[in-house]
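Z., the sequence and structure:
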Amino acid sequence: MTKNESMKIDVLVQLTKGKLRRFIHLIGTVAEVVVLWLLLYFSYLLVTETMESGQITPSADYPMFMPYMVVAAGVLVCALSSLYALYNAIKGEK
């Protein structure tokens, strides 16, 4: 069963209690959301630039944007998951 957790250093969360703990958790989740959505944006730019340039892999002779698209799709899933985590953090759940 999943716990909807991401990798992060949570020393401050473990050392605090109550409203301060919730606030620190919320700030960390907001930072995660921002970073992932920025990464998604730059992944999109990379894919479109590679598509426009027509770059291909030297050994397999397929378009280079394809592996970049796979990475962008993974980032999209993580970004959507981070929005759900933010929603839960705002509601006060973990």
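The longest helix spans residues 18-53. Residues 26 and 89 are 6 Å apart (CA to CA).

Let me know what you think.
H.
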